[in-house]
Amino acid sequence: MIDRRSFLLRSVAVAALAAGPACHAAEAGVRRTGVRGLTSAIEIVDDVYGVPHIRAQSIPDAFFGQGYVVARDRLFQIDFGHRRELGRMAEAFGAEFVAHDAQARLFHYRGDLDAELARVPADVLACGRAYIAGINARIDEVTADPTLLPLEYRILGVAPIRWDIRDMVLARGAASGNTDDEVRRAQLAALGLLDLDAVIAPLMPAHPLSVPDGLDVSKVSDDDLGVLRLGRLPFGPNTPVTDPDERSGRLERANAGSNAWTVAPSRTASGRPILANDPHLGIGGFGPRHVAHLMAPGLDVIGGGAPGLAGIMQGHTDHFAFGRTNFHIDQEDLFVLELHPSDPERYRHAGRWERFTRVEISIPVKDAAPHTEVLRYAVQGPVVSHDPARRRATAIASIAMQPGGGGSFAMIAINLARDWAGLQEAFKIHPSPTNFHYADTAGNTGWQVIGFMPVRKRGEGLMPVPGDGRYDWTGMRDHRALPHEYNPAKGWFASANQDNLPPDWPADRIPAFDFRDPYRYQRVADVLSHQNHHTLADSVALQHDTLSTPARQLVALLPAAASDAARPAVTMLRGWDCRLDAASGAAALFEILWRELGHRMLDLIVPERAKAIVTSIGPSVLLGLLAHPDARLGADPAAARDAMFDAALVAAWRSAQAQLGTDPAQWRWGTLHTLRIQHPLARIPAIAAAFPPIEVGPTGGDSYTVQARWLGNGPGWSAGGGASYLQVIDVGAWDNSLMLNLPGQSNDPRSPHYQDQVATWSVGQLQPMLYSRAAVAAHAVARLTLTPEGSRP
Question: What pTM did the predictor assign?
Fold first, then answer.
């Protein structure tokens, strides 16, 4: 356990630490020799925005450079995540982390790691090895010169761990996918209230729900999720701090998405394609993207990458631009296993009693003896719950745990592709569900859904299923079984996590039923369909569009005859343009009213016995019941709706007054809807002192506007996620392209690039995405040369 007193004592050293070198800016002009893993010298040119431009003589060396610079700028972020995925927290932080390590190791691949690496094309694998060598080279440097270490290491008293190529196919992640949704539906079915699941999230596309044959829903409980319920890491003296991955958990899964659109030359003012993309991820902790430019003969790619994952996820090469949004494929299922009455290490499957595969692991523990843990695996996958007393266990089938399901090298393959045909080969090693957007210098545009889809014997993955063999997976389909479009006639296409399956898509190949409400897409489509001369500025404006379709629909439903107490709210909302701007008082009132209506509608339609399960209401469901009240609201649905609506308006007005003051002219949505970025371990006093929070300030938007700024955890109104990386690419005229990466490229508060992009992000102003040698040279601020081991100085 981390001792509270030791952290308080260490905090006195923060002032001295802050006086250390200003991160990589202090290393400008340095020539480092004897670097292991390089084959020839590389040059790294940092521009004024903190973007490193890596110039190498071979493609693998360019990826070495990417590994090196991400470790230079984000070492603790990638090291902490890597340590957690490998299940090596307890060895650094103590016994309280053993359960988390065991969970992580349960989701390690137990097949042949060498065979997994052999699946990867040789040129892609060489780049992956080089990327890891680049990370390790930076670790070697900071180990040799501790003044270069990020502050966290001296505060926490730990050291970074070295990376290995086999780790890239070993750790698969303990994501639960939609298994908690499966459990919820079974619990509602046990209450005879399965129809209430559609209140939370109607299936998209529409599909009837039924209980799988052989599933006893009365026995399904949250306990069936087992170790998937483990939750936060136990840092801190009393209260666990926000886990660095917490924001990518349940909250983010409910909101995360992205916007992307591609506009063909026929509909742009320049006659060149434009590709825009703004991935929506958690905001408030470590930045989810790091921008880099990789150059070598045969490679010239720039854009945002995920720290710790080799390659560029969104950006452009010298031939094409590319972006991505989340598609939806149900890639996890929960299987319920019957244990043998006298031997809990056996379970029923295919008419026989099979024995679990047992793996005994030893977890190193700081200041204690190693902990021994037994991990179990069934035919379907890792066993997450094992309860001999109930003769019950549950196992997870996951695409990630299948051979070839890791996906750590997919971005490299995409970056190495030269055209649309080459990308089709790259997609074969990309398992995660994605709408891939494409536009090339010849004027072609394309959209391809990529990802792996399980083939089930029976069922659709919507509820837990018996693990007796009847519902097992029989294989996987890749992107060739998923929709695509090339040079669409309408001249544009967009994705915003909506159901974009073609209308005639085969029912037996529907990949999921949890697509998002189409509000963001509808707004994007409305704008693009009316712009015949689309520009980069138009794309930037659209990325920051705050028009709310739910607000428009709600305002149209405001009661004609409101009570005296409700009339001020009705008047304010009727005079509103339905834009969720930070400076709008009506936007604040709308958000407060929206929450009031949701709570009150749930109180009306959800029986007491289901209230603990049904705790949210889908926006389309709420608006539908307000527009067309039905028997769920009681004997006189319209009267119940009217009374509830009026009461919500009164309560919202009073709540706004309490939170924003008695003068409605002074109300602002941004007063409530603010954004703060702080270190994920900020509840540790010394960390909080060394990493002061970044106050981004007021922001507009919400979950359903194109400028997505969804609400964070808790009862407040602060933003929890949205677009922190944005790009708008002028295909072919690359230096015109724009980007932004909040809060900055570096995680080190001593760096000038720690929060240098906050001000521009706050006002929706993107910066140049410098690309050509001339443009980079004109804005260069630092140069670093790395030479390989054994080379002459």
Answer: 0.93
